[in-house]
Amino acid sequence: QVQLQESGPGLVKPSETLSLTCTVSGGSISSHYWNWIRQPPGKGLEWIGDIYYSGSTNYNPSLTGRVTISVDTSKNQFSLKLSSVTAADTAIYYCAKWAQQLGYYFDLWGRGTLVTVSS
Amino acid sequence: DIQMTQSPSSLSASVRDRVTITCRASQSISSYLNWYQQKPGKAPKLLIYAASSLHIGVPSRFSGSGSGTDFTLTISSLQPEDFATYYCQQSYNNPWTFGQGTKVEIK
Question: Chain A residue closest to B3 (CA)?
Answer without folding.
Answer: A46
